[in-house]
Amino acid sequence: MQSIFLLLGLFADAVSASPLGQQPLGHISPTELPAGQLAEGLRKPVRGRFLHITDFHPDRLYKAGTSIDRSCHRGNGPAGYFGAEGTDCDAPLSLVNETFRWIEENLKDEIDFVIWTGDSARHDNDEKIPRTANEIMELNTLLSQKWISIFVEEGVRETSNAVPRMSIPVIPTFGNNDIMPHNIFNEGPNKWTKRFAEIWNPFIPEDQRHTFVEGGWFTAEVVPGRLAVISLNTMYFFDSNSAVDGCNAKSEPGYEHMEWLRVQLKILRSRNMKAILMGHVPPARSSEKKNWDETCWQKYTLWMHQYRDVVVGSLYGHMNIDHFMLQDNNKVDIDSKAHGKVSINSKADYLESLRNQWSSLPSPPSGIFDELDSVSDLGDLSEVEPAKDKRGKKKDKKKQKFLEKIGGPWAERYSVSLVSPSLVPNFFPSLRVIDYNITGLDDVARGADASTHAADDTTSGLDHAEIDTPETGDDSLTPPEIQKKKGKGKKKKPKFKVPEPPSSTAPPGPAYSNQAFTWLGYTQYFSNLTKLHEQLATSEQGDNPRIDYEIEYTTNDDVYQMKDLTVRSFFQLAARIGEEGVEEKQTEVNSQGADWSLSKKKKPVNNVWRAFVRRAFVGFPVDDLDDLDG
Ligand SMILES: *[C@@H]1O[C@H](CO)[C@@H](O)[C@H](O)[C@H]1NC(C)=O
Ligand SMILES: *[C@@H]1O[C@H](CO)[C@@H](O)[C@H](O)[C@H]1NC(C)=O
Ligand SMILES: *[C@@H]1O[C@H](CO)[C@@H](O)[C@H](O)[C@H]1NC(C)=O
Q1: Looking at ligand 2, which atom is closest to the CA of residue 437?
Q2: If you average pLDDT over residues 292-315, what whole number do you get?
Q3: What are the GO cellular component annotations (predicted)?
Q4: Are residues 230 and 128 in the same domain?
Q5: 148 and 71 together in one domain
Q6: Which of 154-163, 234-243, 487-496 is least confident?
Q7: Which neighbouring-strand residues pair with 116?
Q8: In terms of Cα–Cα distance, which of 560, 559, 622, 630 is closest to 600?
Q9: pLDDT of 259-295, one tens digit each?
Q10: Residue 55 is part of which domain span?
Q11: Which of these, 70, 119, 450, 558, could form a disulfide with 175 (CB 3.0-4.6 Å)?
Q12: Atom 5 in ligand 3: residue holding the nearest Cα
């Protein structure tokens, strides 16, 4: 009973004369409330769904009917009312406004939080009208206001000019076009971290503001006490940011960022919490494209592996094409000084390079995944069903070998990063809704009002103590893969703290086995602007044209067939995409009614690969797709 009075005391300052039952819960982690004291009116049960949206690129200069060669700012041309789909033009406000209306009408009450991965200003692509810093801030403010107008806590806004309270968390991050000149981001604090701390004030938890001003990164508890979203400032990892130099040197902000991330994940593990990572520029690394400085990729991949019990998954934008990437922990070599840039070819070449990577994934013995799915205790597969005959034993050996190669039955050798396509209609405007497992979360509340989360004293204490204490001189903490590489006699110690792996008794994390917070699937939405503009031309739409988002695909459909979004499911999909095509005997129309196999009677065809490429371009008709191999 005492704690209830304490709580009332805490509330008293902010909201006098209101009964406890009407207060939003965001102030206090629900775990601090005595069991059974959650009043009905206080409950905000998790819904098991969130929105990922990225790369709006709003442009106030966009004019319908202008030339796409002039950034859709001038001249005469085909630029449409809602944008010039399939071009490099930025997004008109009509598209931005209508997208927010659609979100308000269709998603507002369905989602627990919003992941918003940057590039919320136009490109600097018009020599006649260069961008200004104020324009970048103003466009970011515009989008922030839109989120606030949808998700402001009812009845709170009008009462004061204080920071608006959000009914669900919205988590932003810096894009390479949210700064000037684009790509160049200096060590913080700087004018960008300071001004965005103001613009994003309602989105950054109070106890994270200092951190944000220092480095442009922060953590938000989206399900208090259970799930955090970590907003990375990928500008410090980005190869094109010439103001910084990777993650190895202690003087670099990238080094500091990785240290901070390591400590965050360590704290979350100690609190038995899980984390979603998000950022703008994804860690692409193939023969055709490398986005991050290699030293940052190395640490990131190692961190993902060591904290594989904590991290649920990672979400990025920037590349505007829908795809995913696997980070392979066997590619971690902590002594590497590799630099070297790979030039960017076309997007299709990049996708081909991913396919090439995936074609050399360890090849699964037939039936292995069905078997893994049906077995609940995966300690040792061969013990589950010991083979009796010689051939059976050989088969078992093959399976064991395969499992060793992929890091055990959960494929823990790998981690996955997802890239959502953009809102700006480089193809069609697009957004993604991700479903996650809410088993056992009946009594937890989703987060609200990031601005007033009580700072967790134990957390900040741990934070400082940890930073001052050397963690590993102990080789037992070095991942076995790395120990092996260094050979026996001379063990070189890494020049940074290698994070501790999960305890040997820890069950696999939500990225690896389906449990609370595991991503179950996503729905990709798009708006067919070509169709809309046709309708507008025949004035079917009237004075107040609206846009609609429709489902492009879901991850559990006939093509992707993903039963969840665990790493093993992505491994299977990647392996299927990497497979060689088979020759088609006769014309087939695939289950979605797409007819791209029509013209391909003789050439080998891999329909999963074809779908992957089509989806990369959000279903927009792209020239030359037919020329892609198989
Ligand atoms: C979009 O909304 C903003 C307010 O948020 C308004 O100022 C602007 O006129 C709208 N533009 C269009 C084209 O709807
Ligand atoms: C969520 O996780 C639980 C516990 O592992 C599992 O039993 C359940 O099937 C999962 N739910 C879904 C919808 O996959
Ligand atoms: C978009 O609309 C156009 C015109 O109606 C149509 O030809 C095209 O197939 C549609 N694309 C998709 C992916 O639905």
Answers
A1: 1
A2: 98
A3: fungal-type vacuole; vacuolar membrane
A4: yes
A5: yes
A6: 487-496
A7: 53
A8: 630
A9: 999 999 999 999 999 999 999 999 999 998 999 999 9
A10: 2-281+317-322+420-469+519-554
A11: 119
A12: 531
In a domain, 341, yes or no: no
Of 439, 556, 568, which is best to mutate to test ligand 2, by the most ligand atoms within 8 angstroms of its C-beta?
A: 439
What Rg value do the Cα atoms of the chain yield, rounded?
Answer: 25
Q: Nearest ligand, CA of residue 147?
A: 1
CA of 111 to the centre of ligand 1 (A): 25
Statement: residue 364 has pLDDT above 80: yes
- More reliable by pLDDT, 601 or 260: 260
Average pLDDT, stretch 147-161?
77
Which pLDDT does position 342 carry in this prediction?
Answer: 32
Same domain, 192 and 59: yes
- Distance from C-alpha of 153 to C-alpha of 55, rounded to nearest angstrom: 26
**Cα–Cα separations (whole angstroms), residue 448 to 131, 201, 451, 452:** 35, 14, 9, 9
Looking at the structure, tell me whether residues 525 and 584 fall in a common domain: no
Half-sphere exposure of 287 (CA within 13 A, CB side): 9
SS3 category, 550: strand
Contact criterion met (CB below 8 Å) for 84 and 425: yes
Same domain, 87 and 137: yes
- Same-domain check for residues 198 and 276: yes
pLDDT grade for 144, boundaries at 50, 70 and 90? very high
Instruction: Let me know if residue 293 belongs to a domain.
Output: no
Q: Are residues 18 and 112 in the same domain?
A: yes
Provide the pLDDT for residue 336.
52
Whether 629 maps to a domain, the answer reads: yes
Of residues 54 and 336, more confidently modeled? 54
Structural domain includes residue 118: yes
Give phi and psi for 51, each to the nearest 5. Answer: -105, 135
How far out from the chain centre does Cα 152 lie?
24
Nearest-CA residue for ligand 1 atom 9 is 93
Confidence band, pLDDT 50/70/90 cuts, at residue 149: very high
Into how many domains does the chain fold? 2
528 within ligand 3 shell (Cβ under 6 A): yes
% of the chain with per-residue pLDDT over 90? 69
Tokens of 513: 């086995």
Tell me what the mean pLDDT of segment 358-362 comes to. 96
Based on the fold, state whether residues 531 and 590 are members of the same structural domain.
no
pLDDT of residue 589: 52
Residue 439 near ligand 2, beta carbon < 6 Å: yes
